[in-house]
Amino acid sequence: MNHEEILKETKAQIDALVIQAKEKLDGLGDPKELEVGKWYKRAGQSMFVVTGSNRACNIGYGFDRDGVWFDDGGELYTDNYIESTPQEVEEALIKEAKRRGLVESGVRFRSPDGTDYGYFYNGGKVYYNSNPKRLVFKEDESTGIHLFFNGKWATIIEQPADKFAELKEAHKSGAVIQCLSAFDTWEDCTPAWREDHQYRIKPEEKPKVGDVCKFWDNDENEYYVGKLAEIDDSPVPYHSNYDVWHQHALPLTQQEVINLLFTK
C-alpha cells in the first residue's frame, strides 16, 4: 500500500468515527430539566436540592464543591449533574451534623421543624428520611427528633460542659492523674478522658514516722533526704532523724531517693 492509499484509508476511518459520534450525540437529545425537591450531584463535587428558580437561574440548598453548606437561595450550576443516591445524601448530612456539633452526647438543640423547645442528643441512631427531607435521631422506639428538616438545620442551645476540664489543665501542668480501675482501686494512668471513666489528681501521699522523706521549708529545691522521726500539729510539723524540724516532708520510694541523690 502506497502513501496515498494509506492517507485515503485513514481519512475514511476518521469520517466513520465522526458520523458515529454525531449519531450518539443526536440520540441524547436535550438534557432533562432538574426536578424540584430531588438531590443531585455535579461531576462528583457539589450536592444540592433545587427549590425553584430566580430569573434564569436555578436556586436551592446543599453543599458546594468544597463540601461547605449553603442555605436555600444559593444559585446552582446544573450542568453535568446526576441524581444522588439516598446513601450519599445520608452520609453527607450526617457528616455535616457532626461538623456542627449536633451529634455529641449532651448537646441541647432546637429542632428546625418549628418546635421551639430544646432536645438533648443522647447518642441515639441517626438516619435520613427523604420524604420530607430530614435527618432524624431516634430517641426511643416511638420518637424521632429532627436534626435537619427541608433545608434547615437544628440550632445548638447549649454545649455540654467538659467535666474533665480542670483535670486536663492540671495534667498539662504536670499533675499525675489516676483512673479508677475495674477493681475499684485508683491507679496512675495516661488519661484517655473517656466519659465512662473516673479520673482524679493523685493525692499527695502523707508521710508517716519511719518514712524516708525529702525535707524542705520555703524552697523545695533546697532540701535534704532523711528519715521522719516525729510529727506534731505545729506550723513546722516534721522532725527528721537529724533533729531538725521542717515545714514540708515528702515520702520517697527507693528509686526516687536514688534519683534525687545520684542523678544530676
Any overview of this molecule?
The chain has 264 residues and is of the alpha+beta class. The chain has four domains: 39-83, no CATH class; 86-158, no CATH class; 165-201, no CATH class; 212-262. The chain contains four helices and 20 strands. The protein has helices at 3-28, 86-99, 165-172, 254-262; strands at residues 39-42, 46-54, 57-63, 69-75, 81-83, 108-110, 118-120, 125-130, 133-138, 144-149, 152-153, 155-158, 177-180, 186-188, 199-201, 212-216, 224-231, 238-240, 245-246, 248-251. The strands form five sheets. The protein has a five-stranded antiparallel beta sheet, with no helix packed on it. A five-stranded antiparallel beta sheet has the order 19-18-17-16-20. It is elongated, with a radius of gyration of 36 Å. Residues 24-31 have low confidence and may be disordered.
What key attributes describe this structure?
single chain; 264 residues; alpha+beta; 4 domains; 5-stranded antiparallel β-sheet; 4 helices; 22% helix
Brief description of this entry?
It is built from four helices and 20 strands.
